[in-house]
Amino acid sequence: MFGFHGTTDTVVPIANGVTARNEIAGRNGCQPAAMAVESDGCLSFQGCSAGHPVTWCEFNGGHMPAPQSATRIWDFFSQF
Q: CA-to-CA distance for 17 and 7, rounded, in angstroms?
């Protein structure tokens, strides 16, 4: 999973996104968010099962594509 979520999203509240993220991270065998590694506004969950990484990025914005996300998305999918 590679998720982006705007902190001011009025369509899908950030709390709902975080709940979904935590559910997927748990299903993928990842350690809790408190143990995730933060880098440049994103969290990379640790200990996930092989081939099931979870990365989560929050940005200042609403229900819209994350600014300058193309490179991050490409890098994520290129690992497969």
A: 10
